[in-house]
Amino acid sequence: MLIRKPDPIPSSEITPKSAYLNRRQFMATAAAAAAGAGVLGERLLHPSATAQAAATKLNTVKSPLSTTGETLTPYNDVTTYNNFYEFGTGKGDPSKNAWRLHTRPWTVSVDGLVKKPKTFDIDTLLKMRPMEERVYRHRCVEAWSMVIPWAGYSLSEFINQCEPLSSAKYVQFLSLDDPKQEPWINEVSLTWPYSEGLRMDEAMHPLTLLTFGLYGEVLPNQDGAPIRLVIPWKYGFKSVKSIVKVRFVDKQPHTAWNDAAPNEYGFYSNVNPNVDHPRWSQKTERRIGEPIWKQRRTTLMFNGYGDEVAKLYTGMDLRKNF
Amino acid sequence: MPNRAVVALKVLVHAACLAPVAWLLYHLAISQLGPDPTATVTFFTGRGTLRLLVLSLAVTPVRKLTPKLAWLIRFRRMLGLYAFFYACLHLMTYLWLYANFDVATMVDDITRRRYIMVGFAAWLLLFPLALTSTKWSIRKLGGKRWQILHRLAYLAAICGVVHYWWIVKPGVHTPFTITAVLALLLAARPALDYVSSRRRRPAMREA
């Protein structure tokens, strides 16, 4: 008797990984939503923006500005241990809640001291320059740190497109402020929208990264999708997430954490082991994702980027301008 | 409550107090304490201390609600000692994972950082209470003096809650619940004393 061997499954029949991951994510979110019936409708109408976005690959090129000699923090930690108060104050909250964020359509408007105000669509910005992979150390003011392979290009490339006037001395960045998508805004006492700022020379520094992705994929919502800053020599809260507005100004802009506690969070907030936070030491940090006995390590001046950025601050008293 | 039931309940309380520590040690051994295990252990032991301390302080006012709950007093020392045990674990976490047993770091922290100062003060307040938790100590000190000394537990709990508020970032309200419970207990003492004194007065008149 002849038993026919089944034909090999053609590759066209095989579900791509991203698609089945999406379905799983979708079913998981739907199941979770079913438990809390109130949000069911909303979730079904907007099937997990996070999962769809997470499947989108970014083509990146290598960059000489990428940090070498560090072990990357696992993807799972980078995407589940977040400070993003628009989605809750717990470290695990943003990864649970940020599915509410809609990253399309998304625009970034530019105004203030520019030749003329402009609005950029996120998809235009994604294609504006080649996407570089930049591994950076990331040091939070709370004394923990990660090493993350970001994807983006220097903010300076974007600023050049904005055509700021020579009178512009600072750049202010504002995050999305929408309590419908970010209900925690109503619960947390920070000045909203989340505002951050840089001096013009800091903003133009090639290390300052306009960031669209991490680990070769577009940013998960909880990591500041669809567009954020990464300033590797400053404490993490300077690296503003989910940017909707960029404003060129002549005076130092107000910033969210400085508003909340000016004695604890300065405008500059450069990583500096010699200047303690008023409540805790900044001499050491805990590396996320390491075993407990290997977490503690020495914090480096400017987070180890002193060779590149120390010259921005020559003659400045970094104790006063913390 | 029959004696056998109290004994059985004591076994349960021991288990309830030790199980979290077993859970913590197990997850520590298999490296499953999340992205920031140091912070996990710190928060876990600190929160455990505050909860047990507040629970031990709740015994007296709850017991006073009705004579039927008098047996609760037999659990107070146990809860207090477990609170101290968790406080020791919390302190060990600091000494090992934060200060790395470096004396200079400890001195620097304890003299300059108010949340560490007040946290350490809380531990120091609990220490003599743990030492004098035996029946022998009560006899030796005399009930009244022993009682006054052990009111320090309230002060330790206040220090613990302040310690918690001083470490969270502005805008974070996680210490609110434990603060509210402690405030309730602090208010309950004088309130219950007042009520019982009102109750006693007519009885005295009859006599």
Automatic annotation (TrEMBL), chain A:
**The Oxidoreductase molybdopterin-binding domain, residue ranges:** 103-257
> Record's InterPro entries?
MsrP, OxRdtase_Mopterin-bd_dom, OxRdtase_Mopterin-bd_sf, TAT_signal, TAT_signal_bac_arc
PTM comment for this protein? Predicted to be exported by the Tat system. The position of the signal peptide cleavage has not been experimentally proven.
UniProt GO molecular function: metal ion binding; molybdopterin cofactor binding; oxidoreductase activity, acting on a sulfur group of donors, quinone or similar compound as acceptor
Keyword presence, Acetylation = no
Which top EC class is given?
A: oxidoreductase
Pfam families xref list: Oxidored_molyb
Protein purpose:
Part of the MsrPQ system that repairs oxidized cell envelope proteins containing methionine sulfoxide residues (Met-O), using respiratory chain electrons. Thus protects these proteins from oxidative-stress damage caused by reactive species of oxygen and chlorine. MsrPQ is essential for the maintenance of envelope integrity under bleach stress, rescuing a wide series of structurally unrelated cell envelope proteins from methionine oxidation. The catalytic subunit MsrP is non-stereospecific, being able to reduce both (R-) and (S-) diastereoisomers of methionine sulfoxide.
Q: Which family is annotated?
A: Belongs to the MsrP family.
The name of this protein is Protein-methionine-sulfoxide reductase catalytic subunit MsrP
The record's gene field reads msrP
UniProtKB/TrEMBL annotation, chain B:
**UniProtKB keywords:** Cell membrane, Electron transport, Flavoprotein, FMN, Heme, Iron, Membrane, Metal-binding, Transmembrane, Transmembrane helix, Transport
Pfam families for this protein = Ferric_reduct
Claim: Zinc-finger is one of the keywords in the record:
no
Co-factor(s): heme b; FMN
**Span of domain Ferric oxidoreductase:** 48-160
Could you give a GO molecular-function term held by this entry?
metal ion binding
Instruction: Give one GO biological process term.
Output: protein repair
Q: How does it sit in the membrane?
A: Multi-pass membrane protein
Which regions span the lipid bilayer? 7-26, 38-59, 79-99, 115-136, 148-166, 172-192
Give an example GO cellular component term for this record.
Answer: plasma membrane
What InterPro entries does the entry give? Fe3_Rdtase_TM_dom, MsrQ-like
Localization terms from the record: Cell membrane; Membrane
Q: How is the cofactor bound?
A: Binds 1 heme b (iron(II)-protoporphyrin IX) group per subunit. Binds 1 FMN per subunit.
Main localization category: membrane
Assembly behavior: Heterodimer of a catalytic subunit (MsrP) and a heme-binding subunit (MsrQ).
Q: Per its database record, what is this protein's job?
A: Part of the MsrPQ system that repairs oxidized cell envelope proteins containing methionine sulfoxide residues (Met-O), using respiratory chain electrons. Thus protects these proteins from oxidative-stress damage caused by reactive species of oxygen and chlorine. MsrPQ is essential for the maintenance of envelope integrity under bleach stress, rescuing a wide series of structurally unrelated cell envelope proteins from methionine oxidation. MsrQ provides electrons for reduction to the reductase catalytic subunit MsrP, using the quinone pool of the respiratory chain.
**Which family does this protein fall into?**
Belongs to the MsrQ family.
The record, for PANTHER family, names: PROTEIN-METHIONINE-SULFOXIDE REDUCTASE HEME-BINDING SUBUNIT MSRQ
Q: What is this protein called?
A: Protein-methionine-sulfoxide reductase heme-binding subunit MsrQ
- The organism encoding this protein is Acidipila rosea
The taxonomic lineage of its organism, from the top, reads:
Bacteria, Pseudomonadati, Acidobacteriota, Terriglobia, Terriglobales
